[in-house]
Amino acid sequence: MEAEDILAIFKFSAQERKILLSFGIQEDVFLPLLLSLKSGGSWSYAAEESRSIAVKDVTTYYDEENKAGYTLEEVYLFIDPEILKQEGSVYRLEKCGRKGERELVIRPYRMILKARKIVLAQVDPGKKKIFIREIEKKKISLKGTPAYSAAHELEHLEKGEVRGLPLWNFEYIPQA
């Protein structure tokens, strides 16, 4: 690794720490957000005094005329999350980082989450900026992939391990 890369990492880490401290919350609850930003995906964290989950949503903006675009990532950090309402059921295959194979699970299509604090980080790769702020409201409605991700991470917090039906329980059906 080059010296300029190391310096850039130190500078980024210092900015990150300053931003996190500005929220006046213990730093460890930000771990899911940091992991989501750096490694992708959604994450959860539990300690004796608090729990948190980060849930990622993505939207691609594409200009057909210019043939260019970008994918905006929105990462919601829910501190001490609680499910207020769930609706629908979607059968889906998921893979948890701890397991080698995907498993069939049933997740809600829509979910309303309440949290002590909600922080939103918006990553704009076109501008190379991460906009971060606390959301005023304490309830968020999620649907589709963010709802599935939230349910998955909440299952980690409640049960530890996510359990589903392993893929090898499926049957191949040849078609002509």
What descriptors fit this protein?
single chain; 176 residues; alpha+beta; 5-stranded antiparallel sheet; 3-stranded antiparallel sheet; 3 helices; 11 strands
Describe the overall structure.
With 176 residues, the protein is an alpha+beta fold. It contains 3 helices and 11 strands; from the N terminus they run ααββββββββββαβ. The strands form 3 sheets. It has a 5-stranded antiparallel β-sheet with strand order 1-2-3-8-9. A 3-stranded antiparallel β-sheet has the order 4-7-10, covered by helices on one side. It has a 3-stranded antiparallel β-sheet with strand order 5-6-11, with helices on one face. The longest helix has 20 residues, at 3-22.
Counted by DSSP, the helix tally is 3
pLDDT < 50 stretches: none
Order of helices and strands: HHEEEEEEEEEEHE
Shape type: globular
Biggest β-sheet, characterized? 5 strands, antiparallel
**How much beta, percentage-wise?**
35-45%
Helical fraction: 25-40%
Provide the gyration radius in Å.
18 Å
* Total number of strands: 11
Distance between the termini: 53 Å
Look at the helices and sheets and give the structural class: alpha+beta
Give the overall average pLDDT. Answer: 92
Strand order of the largest sheet: 1-2-3-8-9
